[in-house]
């Protein structure tokens, strides 16, 4: 019978998108528990014409819960994820807390579904499944079909990341700053220490001793885990750009075996969860606005890398909705695999 669900962090941007995706996809559930911090407990929300009272997340929240969707930050996942697993829940965690744990599958359903094949609903045994970082999901949705055909040996990624990745408050600040700047006022800088409107800057994640920020190293490490290939060379530069909710990524791929651009285009046209927008005469290629609020990742600018001999290199440009496929949709597709 249909599973009982819990949504942890239901008031956040991803938490709200969990509910939208559950409804859009007719995900079957016999009950659903809306969980958030003490601050939100007691508030009402309507979901699928039913009224729900948001409950405070506690250690007892997971009794009888089959699947728990988490998106409330790494510290909440670290504290309550294991508790939920002990109570027999299968946790799909959108935070980075457990992504690199060798016992936790890191899953993009269209890419590496087998990584979670040992996890069964109804076994009474809880488990943890990690949702990859949004920029990783969006990149690998396009890069993996090509990798499966010609084996990527090196990937260089430049990302152009939306405000939504920094949360609902960042989206609100971008809108506020845009108005303020247009009105000749001093922009309000609370979320980011610098002006964001009409500007762009290196991703706000902490910078590590090697000079990369955490967002860039997530792309490097998560790609190797998801592809189960510790030798693939990955480097990344992640930039925050004044766009609301969809990431864009420029991806350069170097292959072990030749792959010409026409074959690459065909592979991508047939790839699940991918749409090709690649019209050179009209200069029509993926844009963040085009993919916003949509499930599919869009890819274009497919072209042979002229810096490589033969067909061993390819450049592509990818856009994907950060909140949907980059977080909530991917997590719920993972949950669907448990049904
Ligand atoms: C970002 N990847 O876009 C992060 C969100 N999890 O900032």
SS summary, helix count:
8
Distinct small-molecule ligands in the complex: 3-amino-D-alanine
Count of extended strands:
15
Write the element-wise H/E pattern from the N-terminal end onward.
EHEEEEEHEEHEHEHEEHEHEEH
The percentage of residues in β strands lies in: 15-25%
Mean pLDDT: 97
Biggest sheet, spatial arrangement of strands: 10-11-9-12-15-14-13
| Fraction in helix | 25-40%
Computed Rg: 20 Å
Low-confidence stretches: none
Biggest sheet: strands, sense, closure?
7 strands, mixed
Helix- and strand-based class? alpha/beta
Distance between the termini: 9 Å
Shape: globular
Topology:
Blueprint (H helix, E strand, L loop, with lengths): L3 E5 L4 H12 L6 E6 L7 E4 L2 E4 L1 E2 L10 E4 L3 H13 L3 E4 L33 E4 L3 H17 L1 E10 L6 H15 L18 E2 L11 H13 L6 E8 L5 E10 L5 H9 L4 E3 L11 H4 L5 E8 L8 E9 L2 H14 L2
Parallel strand pairs: 1-2, 1-6, 2-5, 6-7, 7-8, 9-11, 13-14
Antiparallel strand pairs: 3-4, 9-12, 10-11, 12-15, 14-15
Helix pairs in contact: 1-8, 3-8
Family: Belongs to the aspartate-semialdehyde dehydrogenase family.
Catalytic activity: L-aspartate 4-semialdehyde + phosphate + NADP(+) = 4-phospho-L-aspartate + NADPH + H(+)
Protein name: aspartate-semialdehyde dehydrogenase
């Amino acid at each position: 019978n249909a599973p009982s669900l819990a949504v942890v962090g239901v008031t956040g941007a991803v938490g709200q998108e969990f509910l939208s995706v559950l409804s859009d996809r007719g995900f079957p559930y016999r009950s659903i528990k809306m969980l958030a911090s003490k601050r939100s407990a007691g508030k009402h929300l309507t979901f699928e014409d039913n009224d729900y009272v948001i409950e405070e997340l506690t250690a007892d929240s997971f009794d009888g819960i089959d699947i728990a969707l988490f998106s409330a930050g790494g510290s909440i996942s670290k504290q309550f994820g294991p508790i939920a697993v002990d109570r027999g829940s299968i946790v799909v965690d959108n935070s980075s807390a457990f992504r690199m744990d060798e016992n936790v599958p890191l899953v993009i359903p269209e890419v590496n579904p087998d990584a979670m094949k040992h996890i069964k609903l109804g076994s009474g045994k809880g488990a943890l499944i990690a949702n990859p970082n949004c920029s990783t999901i969006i990149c690998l949705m396009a890069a993996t079909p090509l990798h499966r055909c010609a084996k990527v040996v090196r990937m260089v990624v430049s990302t152009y990341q939306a405000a939504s990745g920094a949360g609902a408050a960042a989206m609100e600040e971008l809108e506020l700053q845009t108005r303020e700047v247009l009105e000749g006022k001093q922009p309000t800088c609370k979320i980011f220490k610098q002006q964001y409107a009409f500007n762009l800057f290196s991703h706000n994640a902490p910078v590590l001793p090697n000079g990369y920020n955490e967002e860039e190293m997530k792309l490097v490490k998560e790609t190797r885990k998801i592809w189960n290939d510790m030798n693939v060379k990955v480097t990344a530069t992640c930039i925050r750009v004044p766009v609301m909710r969809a990431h864009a990524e420029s991806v350069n791929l170097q292959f072990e075996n030749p792959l010409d651009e026409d074959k690459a285009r065909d592979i991508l046209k047939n790839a699940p969860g991918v749409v090709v927008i690649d019209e050179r005469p009209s200069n029509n290629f993926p844009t963040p606005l085009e993919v916003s609020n949509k499930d599919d990742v869009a890819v274009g600018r497919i072209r042979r890398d002229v810096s490589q001999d033969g067909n061993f290199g390819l450049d592509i440009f990818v856009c994907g909705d950060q909140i949907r496929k980059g977080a909530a949709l991917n997590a719920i597709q993972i949950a669907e695999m448990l049904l």
